[in-house]
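Please check the following for our workbook:

***
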Amino acid sequence: MKNKSIIITATVSALLIWVGLVEKSRSIKIDDHAYYRAHLVEQHQHDLAVNQIVLETRYSLKVSYENLSQELQQIKKVYKRLQNIPDFLDDQNTQKLQSILTEGAQSLDQRLFLLEEFKAKNGLLKNSLYHLTFLIDQTKQDKTSSDQLDQVLTELFDKALLYTLNSDEAIAPEVQLKVEELQAYINSDAAKENPNLEDVLAYVQNILDHKPQVDRLTQDLLALPIKQQTRDLSKTYETAYETAVQSSKLFQLAATIWFISMLGGAIYLILTMDQFRKAEQMARTLFEGIDDGFVSVNHQWNITYVNVQAAKTLGKRPDEIVGQSFWTTFPHELGHNLTDYYQQAINQQTVVKFEVEYRKLLWLEFRLYPRKDDLAVFWQDISIRKQAEAQLALSLKITDKALNKAKDECKKAKEANHAKSQFLANMSHELRTPLNAIIGYSELLQEDAADIGQDIFLPELQKIQGAGKHLLSLINNVLDLSKVESGCMEMHLEKFDIMPLLQNVISTMQPLIENNNNILRLQCAEDIGTIYADQVKVRQSLFNLLSNASKFTQGGVITLRAFFTNNHGVSWIHFQVQDTGIGMTPSQLKKIFEAFSQADSSTTRKYGGTGLGLTITKKFIEMMEGEITVESKIGKGTTFSILIPQMVQTFSISSDMSAEAHPLPLPSQPSDLDMDMVRTAEPALNHVTLAHNCVAADVMSA
């Protein structure tokens, strides 16, 4: 009975709300809206008519104000009608309309006052013009009038008429000039007494005095904001009407939705019980069909439901479990031993998950879901997953061992490579000494041959010197690379001017550039400034880039640029070497900085070189905290860009290199490499000695 009263009360309340929404949706009266809009249009038309009548009255000889009075009466009537604002508008928009109407009423009063003054002043102006016309005609008809006087009066009247019917004040001086001519005529001996002439002057002066006042009143009337106020009133009303229409539509939509909700609620009340029974049956079917075990326990810890999978795990039939105590029915491994988990789910009203081994045969994952009236207990057999996890752990252990072994092998390889680089770096003196001897002896023999006139030996001696210098250059490159890789390369930071460095580089490289008929251009500001870096490494890097550009460019242009940029408050110096040579493909660009690598085998055969110059340049630039990039198009040319901080910080060898770099002790006796170098240089030295003896023999015979 109580539920029935609640349903009846809710139904009546819902109906009352629906009726209220329907009434709100029908609040707009179309007739009132049409009348008010028509009054707005009528008001606008009357305002325009008043302005038009004022202009016609001002700039014509018309002096009737009957139409103006009628229009003003109509405006007053319309304003009274506009005060009756439709009641379907909201309060905010109604207040806006009332405010605009109040301002319009004030403007209307101001217009009435100005119109009265306008009629008075305009009447005086037009009356003076009429009397002036009459007096001039009367004077002309007088027999004592002369032609000169008639001409002066005619011109005066024309100027006065033009001045009266025109808003331009520039005509006033012309009228004044004619007045002065008439006054001069009156004062002359030729004039005869005529009282009308004094009256003519008086009326003309009256026109000059009142005409500016009438123009000002006309402008004041036209400048009144009545037209704008009427537009604002129309715009505000249209906005308010649209708002009211939208509100009405919203109420109509709300009424429709409310009605549908009431209808849906009634249907829901009818179908709820049947749906509840079906849902309960569906839930039971679902719980019976899942693979997980499911048990429902009430707050008294009595089992209210158990599915087939749960009964199978417990080894009993479902009818033997339902209604029994949870603690006595469940084995201790799944019940009493896990009391803390069950109490946590009930007390904290939170989902609890845990895993448990049951009878050393199964691994079960429990999920406890506390609900309002009971506790839902689910469990899933995860034995297969546990076996997979154990196998995965074993596999990871084996993988870790293999990975550690690979790391050890990699470390040993790095140590061996580092020892090689360290050894080569320490063998610098032993490798260069025999080559310097060969180059020195060849230079001495060239000088001796030139002195004694044995020029026939000069080509061979120059070949020996060239081969020695080439071999020394290759060894220097290998040793520089080995020093960088072994961590023995040092930096000598200093502050130096950029422009002298570039000029030195250009003067040094100019002969090499001209060998291939190339043109070298420098693009750099004269006052570019200074940098703090390793001057030797910067110069060597530019030498390598320019040498590389000259080698692969024939009859082209090589450009060297230098300029500063600023990035995140740090100043950087850019060096660019651009050529118009053969260019490179994308695949060739990928390995351009690799040691002992060139574009391809054909390039090596045609142009020569070991492929170490760019590698060493890259190492030098990176030591100075910079970077080097390259852009190239096949057949178009190549551009290398070097970016170095203007203030290079002290370079420190990387941790892995410094930790592993242990300089090898120099051997007390010549090593195998020393003996190989001696044996390699021995034929060349024998050749040099033989050439020296031949030269000496020729000298003695001479």
Observations:
- Confidence is low (pLDDT under 50) at residues 651-702.
- The first strand starts at residue 293 and ends at 298.
- The two ends are 150 Å apart (CA to CA).
- Residues 624 and 649 are 7 Å apart (CA to CA).
